[in-house]
């Protein structure tokens, strides 16, 4: 059985679901704006490079629904950016897009982040909640401690890939190789056993991923990265142990969602994953 078949298919109820390339980013941004999401052009660009963006078009060719699958090896993937044009909602298009991604994943374990609005659909499709994620934003008040990390160089990339693979249970080589030049910062702990990074989105700098041996190291790495950021930061926290850090550093809760999986437990040392690259990955 071949994992992650790349197919174009007719969606139940009509319409053709097909793979989209970078040239569709303006249409994807329009669809996002329709749902009052930010434009996030850099984010869409990264997803187009490291993931598989699928779209459903109306008879006149207009893009009316989309969803993204990012594969990590053969047996693990992330689903994200599930969007349906507001003029076509409540017609089952989100379910059709999700069913398509589940089909092309061909039995792989799948993970996603869900709002309360989307959660019932995902539960009907067999996803189960693993934990809550709290998103914090604001101007970060770094304490000015001595750094525990240094800027990573290209020579550190193999080590970072290995650390990431141990934590996630999958070799995310394509993602991390592309993310290295995409990020505004990549830092590795002085002992070489943890790392953190950050990237600039439309209106804030997202700190992630943070992969660390323990909570104290994760907090110190976040301080290191945040102290070098000008303007608002965003933390997408999976560990309740970091909630106190966010509050101490002056961040406020923007929203919460839940992390869900389908097809079995996630592999790897998940207790070492403190923040993701982004909720979409």
Automatic annotation (TrEMBL):
Record carries keyword S-adenosyl-L-methionine: no
Entry keywords, A to Z: Transferase
Domain N-acetyltransferase: start-end pairs: 15-147
A Pfam family of this chain: Acetyltransf_18
GO molecular function: acyltransferase activity, transferring groups other than amino-acyl groups
Name this protein carries in UniProt: GNAT family N-acetyltransferase
Organism expressing this protein natively: Bailinhaonella thermotolerans
